[in-house]
Amino acid sequence: MNEGKEPTAMPLDSGQLERDILQVFRCACQQDRPDIAEFMLAALEKLDDEWGSSVASDRPLIDGYRDLIGTCGYRKS
Fold it and tell me: How far apart are CA 4 and CA 31, in angstroms?
């Protein structure tokens, strides 16, 4: 792998994988499956590590966080 090295850009094939995982995350949110949504968000976080220090706001992880705030938000007890 790329242990100890900071990547400069997301590999192209990982970009499609991230988009697919984001779709599954959104589906899990819509179906009220926070357990699955959490797992998918963790996968996006892992893949996002490959972005290095990029601050691009159009990354799938950022989209997932936006969705979390907007649609899967925490419910008050």
Answer: 39
Helix locations, 1-77, DSSP H: 12-30, 34-48, 60-70
Burial class (CB in 10 A: 0-12, 13-18, 19+), 19: exposed
Q: Which of 57, 70, 54, 20 is nearest to 40 (CA)?
A: 20
Q: Alpha-carbon distance 68 to 13, whole Å?
A: 25
- How far apart, in whole angstroms, are the C-alpha atoms of residue 44 and residue 62? 9
- pTM of the full structure: 0.69
List, for residues 25-45, the tens digit of each pLDDT value.
Answer: 999 999 999 999 999 999 999
Over range 10-24, report the average pLDDT. 82
Residue 23 in tokens: 């779709």
> Taking a C-beta distance cutoff of 8 angstroms, is the pair 7, 50 a contact?
yes
